[in-house]
Amino acid sequence: MKRPWLTKSLTTKRRCLDTRLAAVKDAMTQCQKQIAQNEEQKKAHDTEIQEECEAQFEIQKTNSYFSRIHEAGSTHTVDQSEVPSINMKRPCHRYTELMSVLTKAELPIMSRRDIRISNPDKLCARHDNDIIQLGIDVLKTRKLRLGFIVNSAVREQWMCFPLCSMRPMCPTPSSHFHTTTTSIVDYHGQVIYPENDGNFIIHHMVPLAHLVSRHQRAPESSGNLKDAGMRNGAYRGNGVGIYACASPPYELFKPGDGWCMVKAKCRPFLTRVKSGSRGRYVLKSDQSSDSVGSLCIDCEVTAVLHMYSTLPDFLRF
Question: What is the mean pLDDT of residues 106-131?
Fold first, then answer.
């Protein structure tokens, strides 16, 4: 005897069970996705903690190294190859894209079309090939971070590139310093005082090529970026040391002159240069013959500034 009402009831229950089973499967899928996401977050967090621990270890190693130098005094000969470097900040995230494009390009680049990062086949230059090669060499140091336009009093715009992986300043001043500088005066006569940390911000004029190549006054150098710092040099009878301006000397640059600026912070022990342009100072070394061309441990390079209009296009990031 057929019972339609029973068949209908079983069909309804089966549909309900199928619906519940589908809901359970969806819930399980969501749980699996959430578990995978949590695992990725945990892995990223563990990696971040590991990098932080490594960075702290490098800081301790650096502080220990500089403490030994300070205790040894000026008679201690510094092995420049042993000076540690700290990588507390990562390079600009566009390095991978930029370098992948540049490595596919054939140099010298003779085309006159614009550089386009999104299209490696059309990579070419409106600038001289030497400038292009210098820009590539600068990028290969992996020291530049995301750049930005700075406000200058002149018509030409300037771009500032903060730096990473540069050698830090020694935690304690060198023993040969005695007189503290309370203020400095720039080219325009403006009085400049130390920053909140007690250090001055100075600007060093340098040919773009010397960021990645040897400077004639520092024969042992490989360039400010490759050395991850500045070296002491002699100039015009004012002693051995780091020569720089109290404020950015924008007026002294011309488009296409091949020069740029290195921004650095230094200890408040500056001496005014007796001759040359106004507003120039020197952070002197201990004036020993060994100090000529040696890395300065009393200043730390923080940024590079370059005239925007003469930058290769692939450096405008």
Answer: 40
